[in-house]
């Protein structure tokens, strides 16, 4: 059973929510085993995964490099909502990191079995 779930529902820019969520996620690895942590992208949160971002053009920090740290920290439980990808007209090939594409029902089921859910 997963102990901590980090859910990204907002776009990567416009607010600092995604950056703060990634900071919290990386900090959590110091206190939790990486197998106890899951990362979920749904709704507009799928745009965080888009590999063709140019944040410097809007004077924002690059979160793509932070997302790539998930591999380094060995956080392998990464899920993306299939219907959210479809709505955003994205595919797994558009994503900067690998994620398992699952339907919303399966995603909610996983979240319901998690001890703590943090949403950003």
Automatic annotation (TrEMBL):
SUPFAM superfamilies: DsrEFH-like (SSF75169). InterPro entries: DsrEFH-like, Sulphur_relay_DsrE/F-like, Sulphur_relay_TusC/DsrF. It comes from the Bacteria. Gene3D superfamilies: DsrEFH-like. It holds the Pfam family DsrE. Belongs to the DsrF/TusC family. NCBIfam families: PRK00211.1, sulf_tusC_dsrF. This is Sulfur relay protein TusC/DsrF. It comes from Pasteurella dagmatis ATCC 43325.
